[in-house]
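User: Structure please.
Assistant: Input sequence and predicted structure:
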Amino acid sequence: MSKEIDLMTYPNNQSLPDNQPYKIYEFKKTNQEKIPGYLVVSTAKLNVETEEDNSHRYFSSVANKKFFNLNDGEAEPSTQQMIEKISQTLQSSPDPEIIINIHGYSSTPSDTETGCKKIYEYINTHIEQANKYIFIGYRWPSENPIKTDESGSFRQKLINALSSLPTLLAINLALGLTISILSTIALLFLNILSNSAVHFFTALLILSGIVSSIIFTLIILRISTYFRDTYRASNYGTTDLVELIRQLDYTAKLLPNKRIKLSFISHSMGCFVVTDVIRILSDVFDVKSINKKPNSDIGNVFRLGRLVLVAPDIPVESILPGRANFLRSSLRRCEEAYIFCNEGDLALRFTSTAANYFSFPARTRISGYRLGNITVKHFNNKNDSVGHTPRYGVVNLHEQDYGKGYRLDNPYKYLEIRSSSSEHRKLEEITEMSEELVQPADLFTYFDCTDYKDDRMKQIGIVSSAIQKPAINFGNYIFLTLAFIRKSFNNRDPQGVDTHTGYFEGVFSQKAIYELAFLGFQGFLQSLSIEGGESEQISIFSQKCHEKQIQVILAPQIYQQKTQD
C-alpha cells in the first residue's frame, strides 16, 4: 500500500485539491489481461444545487460495480493512491504509453463504463505488447435528456426546467398562455364581436403565441441538455482531465530522456474536450511553437502521441487556415491525427448545427457545419454520376512509375462539405490556402465512412444508408432517420443504423479506431497482415479500404514518401 502524501508538506502546491476533482477506479481482471485499465470519473455535479450527501453517494460508486475492483465492506483506494499506482506502472515500463478514451454528449455513467469496458476487453484480446500501455477511460459529467441519471427521470428534468425559469421568462410564459387561451375563447364563442374586436383578439393571439413559442423553444433547448453539456465539457471535463495529467506528470519519476507517450480516442463532444486539453497542455510560449516547429514533448514526462477524433462535434474551422484557427500550434505536436466522419451523421447534421446556430459566428450555413460533417469528394465528376463510380480507398494516392514510390495530393482538393446534391463546396473553395505552408488539414488522416460496409452484400451500411450517391438528399435523410429510430428501439435490428456512434460497432472501423490509437499507422498496417515496402503497404491498405467502401485521405505531412531519384 502506498503511503499517503502529507498535503501540508507537498511542495509547490502540487497536491490534489481538497475537493478532489476526480475519482479513479481500476478495471477488474477476469483472465490474464496484460494491459491495465482505469476509469477516471470527474466529481463535478450535473446540477450545482445537488446535495453533498447525494453527490458523495453518487460519485463514491459506479453504475456497473462488477467491472471494477470494488470489494464490499472495504474502503476505496484514495485518488492519490491510484495516481501513485499508475505512476509505478509507468516507471516500470521500458516504453510507456497512456491511451485516454473520452465519451461524447448525453452519455450516462453506465454508457461510459460499458463503452470503456468494451475497449479494455478489445485491447487485451487483440494487442500483444505487455508492460507498455495503460488504458484510461475518462468520464466527464454528461447528462442524457431521456434516461434517468443524477438529475432524475425525464419528468423530473421537465419539472426542473419549468421551476428554474427566470422570473421574467416565467411571467411572460404565464401571460402569453393566459392571453392565448382567453383570445381563443373569445374568437370561438363570442359571435357578437365586431370586426374590430375580432382583429384585436386575433392580434393578441398571434403575439401571445409568438412569446410563448420562444419560451417553449428555450425550455426544449434546456431539456435537450446540449448547451448544459457544452458548459460541463468546457468548465469541468477539460479542467479535470488537465488536472489528472498534471498530477501524473508530477508523480511519475522517469529516467532521463524517457517520455510517456500520451494518446487520445474521443467521440463527438469529447473531441471538444480533448482538443481543449491539448491546447492547454501545449506551451504557447515555446520558441519552437512560435517558429511553427514544436516538438511533441509537454510537461516533465509526457509526449503527445496519436489523436483519434470520431464524429468530432467541433467547428470545421479547426482545420481551415487563418488566424482564428485554435488548433494549429497544438495539432503540430501530435505524431499522428485521425478523423472518422460520415455525411449521414444525423446528430451533427441537424441537432448540433441547429444548436450551434445560436452561438457560432458563421455567416453561411456551410461554415456552420461540424468537423464530423466533413466528407471526401465522392465521384470523379460530382455533377454527373452517370458512368462514374465512387472512389474508395486512399483517394489522394498517386502511385509513381518505375518503383519511384507514391505521391499524396493536398487534402483540400478532396475534402468538402455536402448539404445536398446542389449545395456542396470543397474546402479550397471556402478559404484561401497556400501550397507552401503546412495547413491544419494536412496533419489529419480522414476516414469517410459514408458508404462503409463490413459486408458489401448487405443492403445497409454501418453509419449511413450506404446509397453510393453523390450526396444524401431530403428523401434519403427521411429513410435514414427511420433507420436511426429503429436502431434506437432495437439495437439488433438489421435495418437499423446508428449514424453517430456506429463506428464502434463496425468490425473494421472499430479495429481502425482502437489500433490506430494504440499501435499507430504502421502498427495498424501490420495488424492487417500488410507486409512489404512502404509503397506496397499503402497500396494494399488502399485496396482493403476500397473493399469496405471507405474513402481515405492520408496526411501528406506524415505519410508522404519522397520520390526516389
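Residues 1-18, 52-59, 381-387, 561-565 have pLDDT under 50 and may be disordered.
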